[in-house]
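Table S2 (text version). Query chain:
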Amino acid sequence: MRSNDSSTVRRIRSGSLFCIFYFRFASWMIPGFLAIGVAALFGADAIKLNGHWIHGLRGLTYAILAALFTPAFLAVSVFVFTWPGLWLYSKFRKFRIDYINDET
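Corresponding structure-token output:
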């Protein structure tokens, strides 16, 4: 039976916040980049680097690297602007987090 619960916390750890951002971006970017990499593996003009099309295993490798580093870059970008605001907010108020409790 699932029930809704809430908890009040003073602040959110920076590592937890970064993980939320990273996995949120990665959840939709990694499948897209892997699809582009598989297309490049089979010869499609899917990846262009410095004006040249990349094909084969090299294209798949570049797509995998892009799938790992692009969400990290975006997560860091969002984190840099979000963390100071949440830190300042936590100086004046507590956070209320709502979650679904799964009792098994």
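Notes on Table S2: Strands lie at 2-9, 47-49, 52-54, 95-102. The radius of gyration is 20 Å.
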